[in-house]
Amino acid sequence: MLLFFPFLGAEFGVWKMNGVPEDLIVYEIAVVVPKRNLNEENKGYDCVEVLVNEFRNVGLIVERVLGLSDEFIKLAAPLETLGRVAAKMQMKKTTHIGIDLQFEWEDIKAFVRQPDGSLFSWCERFQCYRHLIYEIVNKKNSVVTLKFDGKEIQWEAGESLLQRLELEGIVKQVFPLHDEIKRKKLLRSWALNWWDFTAQPIDEIYAYFGTKIAVYFSFLGMYTRWMIFPATFGLILQLIDFGSLKLLVFPAFFISVVLWAVLFFQFWKRKNSALSARWHLNFSVSTSEGYKLSGREWNSLQPPLELVKNSGIDKTKEKEALQRYEWFGYLKRFRNDVIIILSIICLQLPFELAYAHLYEVLKSDMVKFGLTVVYLLVIQYFTKIGGKISIRLIKHENNENTEYQADSLVYKVFGLYFMQSYIGVFYHALLHRNFMTLRQVLIQRLILYEVLENLVENSLPYLKYSYKKYRAVRNKKKREKGLIGKIQFATRVEKEYLKPTYSASISEELEDGLFDDFLELALQFGMIMMFACAFPLAFAFSALNNIAEMRTDALKLLAMLRRPVPRAAATIGAWLNIFQFLILMSICTNSALLVWLYDQEGKWKLEPGLAAILVMEHVLLLIKFGFSRFVPEEPAWVRAKRMKNATQAQDMCSKQLLRTISGREKAFGGYIRRKKPVGTNKTQ
């Protein structure tokens, strides 16, 4: 990260002459353009040459690398360049007294640095890079004609050069680059460190990947550590035959796992709040008890800018317009949700029930296993279709914030996954009441799904990378016939370009690969919680899987994929509500399983045992909603720090306001004193 070098010149050669070691410059962004033969007479008009010169003019350090078939323009930025563009963007940063103020380069010492000592986080640096490279516009009043391999390109006045070249297909991609020093350090201390099962360098992950990915791994680590208790309890239940005492032991296990889940998510909210305070994420300063974290609470139905600008002209019309916009937004979202729910009920539900019925009718275990494999493959295509439909529906919603659009997509797509993952299990559990079959289905769903998911998740990126390398070498040999020997990729940037992106399986527009990682955790959590009484050993399987998941996900991000584009969301978003919903579902389903276990004859009489189960269900529901009041979501030190910062901010604002008022009164008083003799003479 090039944050401590002064800006010495636009040309890269100037940097080397002034003593800045070339190997210490960290290039963080790459721009990919086709490789071509450039004539000297066209060099001044070539669009790529113009783009490189413009990059240097805005203060970026440029290095050009030739690959097998493409040219790579690597970009780095000194601290001064980033600081001045951050001030131009009016970026808000936390000061040493806890107030978020607009960044000013001249007052750099007033702002808090990141845990790793840098001034800007990776999310902030990436925003600055995007602003620098996409805000290069034609400042002339006329069209500029550029050339590329004999093709003329019209660069309109006020148009972004990079966007024009992307539309023309000249700029193929713009993507972030790995920092080799930090990447190798994280590989040693995180991805390949198996000695401490759940320990993770969260601050280093935050500094390298950004907020959203760091929050995910923090959640995964805490979730895995907390799972040790139910995993141990479930293992005891599986190994020891309690005989007739199982009617008491299973309810005790059920109560304990529900309390475990409720407590876990309350303490996760506390940890999330502590992480946000430690990383200096933006808080709105207030002395009240509540607070809102930037990215956590945001009005998803913000009025459009035109309505805000036109406000104040006519209060009645303004109110009507805002109310109409608000309620139309809610109605559009409700309409889209109804479409998704009806599609699930009318299309997916019959398919799921047919699979569940066939699984119950078939006798051979091998045929059942094969049917499950085919089912899991076929359902992937159904889910992709549902995801595409959801994205089209979301585009017609009034979601002004990208993270809320992503949350809306999560809710809709999870409905599809919920149906395909659990309806068959419900069929076996509640309709046929076959305990052995239910356990077989759970084992197949948990083990088979997670093993297949991990195999696909970790092998597919490598296969894609190998295929792209093979294609690049084959195309090179076709263009230059007669090449002898093995063709190798000499540059790291070209290898990164060939790696797959960290993208979601349903959509690359609103979600990245975190969607699939969170989805895997949510489906696992629902499976082990909703059928805890039927298969207590599932917690132990899930704990082992999550320990491996932490390392394989880390290895995937550091070695198999490109560096992801950072996301500034400070929480797990919609997934928290989904986990809370699954806890409620688990209370209902496990109560039904206990009723079935108690009333094996199917008489359904309201005897003391059944009555106790019904009472227990209602008590657990009350506990679920009551624990949020007993366990505060914000640690005491975070609350004290926030209150201290708010008090300091109010004191400073009060003093500044008093000085301003006092200064005006003095000026006004002096003006009166100067005027008074004249007025007195006139009176006399």
Account of the 3D structure:
The protein is mostly helical and about 675 residues long. It has three domains: about 30-175, no CATH class; about 185-280 and about 330-635, no CATH class; about 635-670. The chain has 21 helices and eight strands. The protein has helices at about 10-15, 45-55, 80-90, 120-135, 160-165, 180-190, 200-210, 210-225, 230-240, 245-280, 305-310, 315-360, 365-395, 400-430, 435-480, 490-500, 515-530, 540-560, 575-600, 610-630, 635-684, and strands spanning about 30-35, 60-65, 70-75, 90-95, 100, 145-150, 150-155, 175. The chain has a four-stranded antiparallel beta sheet, with helices on both faces. Strand 4 and strand 5 form a beta hairpin. Helix 14 runs parallel beside helix 17. The longest helix is centred in the last third of the chain and has 48 residues, at about 635-684. The protein is globular and about 85 Å long. The chain starts with 11 loop residues before the first helix and ends with a helix. It is a multi-pass membrane protein. One of its GO terms (cellular component) is membrane. Keywords: Membrane, Transmembrane, Transmembrane helix. It is found in: Membrane. GO terms for molecular function: chloride channel activity.
Keywords:
disordered N terminus, 21 helices, 6% strand, 684 residues, mainly alpha
Taken as a percent bin, the fraction of beta residues is 5-15%
Give the strand order of the largest sheet, numbering strands 1, 2, ... along the chain: 2-3-1-8
Order of helices and strands: HEHEEHEEHEEHEHHHHHHHHHHHHHHHH
Average pLDDT score:
77
Structural class: mainly alpha
The number of helical elements comes to 21
Subcellular location: Membrane
GO cellular component, one term: membrane
Main location: membrane
InterPro entries: Anoctamin (IPR007632), Anoctamin_TM (IPR049452)
